[in-house]
Structures are given as structure tokens and as C-alpha cells.
Design brief:
The protein is built from eleven helices and six strands. With 267 residues, it is of the alpha/beta class. Strand 1, helix 1 and strand 2 form a beta-alpha-beta unit. It binds iron/sulfur cluster (SF4). The site of iron/sulfur cluster has 15 residues, from helix 4. Iron/sulfur cluster binds next to helix 4. InterPro entries: PAPS_reduct_dom, Rossmann-like_a/b/a_fold, Sulfate_adenylyltrnsfr_sub2.
């Protein structure tokens, strides 16, 4: 059996389509790991994929944390470059637990492309779509017991050498819509907003009622943490107030704060 990690983004959707082309549906298990903080547009898109492709997408959630907000609240800090606890707790662990409970799964397919960034080029640039490697190699920090249970799993990146253009073209050829978030200014699909995302993602998120409400909740949480004496800061160099000012400024372009790429959430 092949597990395909699906996020609702273009790359993982293309990866899912490749899997469904190569194998009968019964051999493909699409898995979406829900942080509880995704856009309603993404949830609707997953429903669309299920209907369109006549498949069922397994939805997983952390058994410990209800959603991203709860996780931040209990950790008493926001995730950042060196502290990606959100990915670990909300994505990596639930996925590993599911994989450990399904020994029939032999391979995990991920929608990672080398041309996405310099870092990915460096890491995956030598791989071909046919290469496989140990899945636990990418799942760093897993508890030893869990690691042991999934150490047999191979990972594969079937679209590792594709360009972004090829991905969008492939979806079109297959008659599959792309997640509408791409047409609303987003370049990636994940938490809404992803705390590690760049200004472009935050600004696109700010434009919708749902996104604005989520951002205001994060700013409120930052305030709460500070009042409790914790040094909560939404972004490394931007606190909630400063961020809010930036989001309200219509003419701010480019990325004023660094965007961190998230290996796992990207899939
Ligand atoms: S999408 Fe962003 S905020 Fe959400 S779990 Fe991934 S890195 Fe964390």
C-alpha cells in the first residue's frame, strides 16, 4: 500500500494523481493531517478531491492538541525557525502514529519538489522520482518506539524534478481544479496563516474574514502570553501590534520578514 501525504496544495495533489495513475485506488491511502487551523477553503477542496476522484482521504488529528492555537497556548510560545513544534506535534506525530498502526503501508509519497527552494535543491536535487529513501530519515525527533515501528517504510518523491508550471499544467490536464487559495494570493497551502509564512501569505490571509479573524486570535494570544509573563512573539522580529500595522498598510510589498519553509507541512 502507498500512503500519499495530502495537504490540499498543488504538489501533494499532483503526487496523489500520479499514485492513482499507477496503482488501483485500493492500494492508495491519501492522508491529510489536520492542524485544526486550516482554511475552510482547504477543507472544502479536500471534499472536492474526494468527490472528483471517488476516493476517501483519511483525516488525522493530533491526539494531544486540539489545534495550532491550543498547542501554542500550552507551549507558551509561538513556533519559529528553530522551534517548529507545531509541525512536530500536529503533523509529524499523528502521521507517524497512523503509519505505525498500518503495517500494510510500504511507501510514503510526498509532494516535494527540488526546485521549490535552494534548500530543497540542495537536499533533494540528486533524487529522481524513482528513488526511495528511509522515511524516518525525514521524520527527525520521533520517539524511539514510534521510530522503530516505521523504520521499514520507504519515502518517495514522485514529482521531485517537476517545475511549478508542470504541476499546474498536470492538474489542468487531469481536469482537477487547483485549491482556490492560489488565486487569492497564496503561494502555499497550510495553516491559515502559517506562523512561519512570509508577509505575502499573511497579507493574503488578512484579506478574508476568516483569515483576519484567525490573525486577530493569534495577536490576542500573544497578548495573553505576555500578560502571563512569557516572551510570546508571533514573528521573530514582529510582535502582534507591529504586524497588524503592516497588514493594514495597503502598499507594503515584498517579504519584510523571513519566510521559513516547513518540510512537512509543505507536503
Ligand atoms: S503550516 Fe506552519 S504553522 Fe502550521 S504546522 Fe506547519 S509550520 Fe506550523
Amino acid at each position: 500500500m502507498i500512503a500519499v501525504l495530502v495537504s490540499g496544495g498543488k504538489d501533494s495533489t499532483a503526487t496523489l494523481l500520479v499514485a492513482l495513475e499507477r496503482f488501483p485506488k485500493e492500494r492508495v491511502i491519501p492522508i491529510f493531517t489536520d492542524t485544526g487551523w486550516e482554511s475552510s477553503i482547504t477543507y472544502a477542496y479536500l471534499n472536492y478531491l474526494e468527490t472528483k476522484l471517488s476516493i476517501e482521504i483519511v483525516r488525522l488529528k493530533s491526539r494531544k492538541w486540539q489545534d495550532l492555537l491550543t498547542c501554542i497556548k500550552e507551549k507558551k510560545m509561538f513556533p519559529h525557525g528553530n522551534q517548529r513544534f507545531c509541525t512536530y506535534h500536529l503533523k509529524l506525530i499523528p502521521t507517524a502514529e497512523f503509519l505505525a498502526e498500518h503495517p500494510e503501508i510500504e511507501e510514503v509519497w510526498l509532494g516535494i519538489r527540488a526546485s521549490e527552494s535552494f534548500r530543497r535543491e540542495k537536499k533533494y536535487g540528486d533524487l529522481t522520482p524513482e528513488d526511495t529513501y528511509s522515511y524516518v530519515e525525514t521524520a527527525t525527533g520521533l520517539p524511539a518506539e514510534l521510530r522503530q515501528k516505521i523504520k521499514h517504510l520507504r519515502a518517495r518523491l514522485p514529482i521531485v524534478d517537476w517545475t511549478e508550471e508542470e504541476v499546474f499544467r498536470f492538474l489542468k490536464e487531469k481536469g482537477i481544479e487547483r485549491n482556490p487559495l492560489y488565486d487569492m494570493g497564496h503561494s502555499r497551502v497550510g495553516c491559515y496563516p502559517c506562523i512561519l509564512g512570509g508577509l505575502r501569505e499573511w497579507k493574503a490571509c488578512w484579506k478574508t474574514e476568516e483569515g483576519r479573524a484567525n490573525i486577530l486570535k493569534l495577536i490576542e494570544l500573544e497578548k495573553e502570553l505576555r500578560e502571563m509573563g512569557y516572551n510570546g512573539r508571533i514573528k521573530d522580529n514582529y510582535d502582534g501590534e507591529k504586524l497588524l500595522r503592516l497588514l493594514k498598510m495597503e502598499d507594503v510589498q515584498g517579504d519584510l520578514f523571513k519566510e521559513e519553509t516547513c518540510e512537512f507541512c509543505k507536503v
